[in-house]
Design brief:
single chain; mainly beta; 21-stranded parallel β-sheet; 2 helices
Amino acid sequence: MSRKHKTFVINNQNPNDFQITGPSQTQAPSGNLYCRLNQFEAAGRPSIGGPPVAVRLGPGLFQTKGYTPAAAASWIPRGGIAPADLPASLTEYGMKFFGSGIGVTVLQLVGAVIDNNLNGGDYAAIGGPYNNIANGFEASDFTIDCNIAGQPSQLAACGGLGVVGTHARLRRIRVINFGTQTWVPTASPPATTECFVLGIGAYQISSLGLGAEGAACLLLDCIMEQPGLNNTRETTGLYIDSTVVGESMIYHRGSVIRNCYANCEYRVNPAQILQITISAGLATVMTALPHGHVNGDWVRISGVRLNGTIYNGFNGSYAISNASATSFQYTPTPTPSANPDSLSDMWVGKFPSQVVNITGISVGTPVGGQYPVTVTTAAAHYLVPNGTVLINNIANASNWNGPFQVQSVQSPTSFIFQSPTTYSGFDSTSAFIYPLFQGGSVDLGTAAVYEGNRILNCIPATYHDTYNTKDQILRNNYFRAVAYGHYQNLGGPAVSTTSYFVPLASLTASGVLGMTATATTTQPHGFSTGDQVIIENATQPQYNTSTGNSNVPWSVTVTGLSTFTYTMGGSPITPAGGNPGYQTGLSAAFTGPTQQQKILGIVGPPPTNALTYAYQSGVYLANANVDLSRFALGVTVGEVVYISRANFPGTSPPTYFNGYVYVTGVAASSFQFILPINPFPGHSSGSSASGYYGRLTAGGKIVLENNIMDLSPSQSFYYSSRAVQFAQYLGSGYFSDLVVPEVVMRRNVIRAMDGLPDLQSPPYKSTGVYAFSCGELIMEENVIDPNSPTAIQFDNCGSTEFFANQTSAGVLALGCSFVNPAVRVSELSTNIEDAALLAL
């Protein structure tokens, strides 16, 4: 046929066919027929129906308006196979997208017009809603240009690709020019949208609210680099995601991120510098290729070392003069004492995205209602006039936190922005500039693997702060120029909550002026006088927390095991109408994450206690009953649960048991766990009619092995460099050692990147490992060379074991207390030596 392999415009499009117009033909085509789309037409196109579709993109640039939840006309990939408990309407495998190669096929996001899409989230070149189950989805071999600087809206968040489903696979995809520029300063607190770059939501949710785990989702050989410049919030890069459906955590299973590359340094037409010479305070730069700048342009110079450090006047942002195609001049501040070190890796237009501490703030005389605010930074800020700077963590000056236009640059470490507000008494000790770029994560799953990846210029390289993880392995990765390697940003109170209100048996008003509310519960409530309680759903607004007390929980007085009172601000009709119910608030009797926890039910008939326990096989084994008519069980074996207000002795006032426990078994309407103590001393069994529970946000079981972590020099107080941090430090004696239940770190190499020293003034010190709230911690045969002499610090851990951790010089790196670093703990290798000496 003479007309094969030609390009046609399609028309009369139907879900399963389309027509083309061409020269007449007397014979129908035959053979192995296929088509390639030469134009990625996505704007306003509905979901493709019928059989699954494979889209093959040829060489070239394809523009798409992509997906955003806020636009009904967004293009959405076809959904896929549904599990047995989800609707049968989802019966086909998801779509497949194949390009002709990274750098050959470019899919560019265009037409992002919605400002501050806070509820809808990111724009994405390819994406869909949480319940568009794209099982079997596959994409490979193309570049996604998120094009954030080229969007009609400069208040948008632009990511690359995000789909939801199981058995999905992303391979050889490069994403560039991503980020978020959203900002609503009038919100309280000011609001932004996080950017998510490339990932799979490895779960399945139906419109009926049912959920099922996703399995075997893969990110392989993908690239994330060259972020947009003017970001207003953190960005999460390469990820396998999951979520909570109803009351239950949906874990992804057997998912992998392997052999991917992420580099979040900034690039603006970078050119390598061959030579810099300094003479009479003027630096002359020679570049390897044409740099593209003219006299008066502002440029960023980075990577210049002087006497072994990058903290010198050569690096920073400068206006240039005497420019030619491959040379220019500028005036470094302060004036360097010599030419750069010979091993410098020098660039113009390529500079770090690491956060920089703010060391000083001063306010000038207002002009036209605007105060000039001069900010001094600890290291080069790399800002240019009219660019955007993101300021974080200034205390007692809320309107100074957020994105601002840079009015002028005074020096590489000083700039000015304008504010209509001035403050006194502000604190900038922990303040810093720039957003975070989080390399990614395989958290929120089980049997997850993160291996063979190269993560550069990120804070942190891998990250977790929301929902639960069961277990993961991170091995054979290379992290470079990172301020945090692996960070489990977890802490209390962080347990699952419920929106369910426990129905009250009655709610009445009495007392002087009828302002005392008396609540009667259907089972013992477990409260103490002074506890906080949330009341809602009464017809009369005076009873409710939201309308009667401005959303401040009521402080209660306990009058019986099933009654309590609180004082209202008005005199409502009694008894309360509607369906009044209660939720738990904070406790006056103990410290713990007790807000809005689920109640353990007295189910029947015949009625049973909320909690029972008995001494069996050397442990106190407990059983918790859940009334499934109120909410789903919501826990699985291996999760950590917080139990509160369990009154096993049955005393009044109550004698509570509160604490974190492992779930060891799950039945249809109950779960089992082992109590760490006997809650009813002198008895081998007991029961409690009251009790509440919530699932702890936990890091699960983590194995870190054979990773190399090259830490960037510390240049901020809030994000001083460290290779690993498990959980937040919540004070010595914090009662949970199960935030990260089990950790094994072995044969990792932790060192200062290229041997560069930390910033010395002020002294922000790098360290190796902070381990907080770990149930079991094993560290063995790691090589740790940070600048801190106390490279391994821990607190609030259950059992710890250290063996043969050392510096590259062969000196033992001993674990020490975070509270008192001078106190070193025993080391197995020294214990063996001591035992041998004692034997002699």
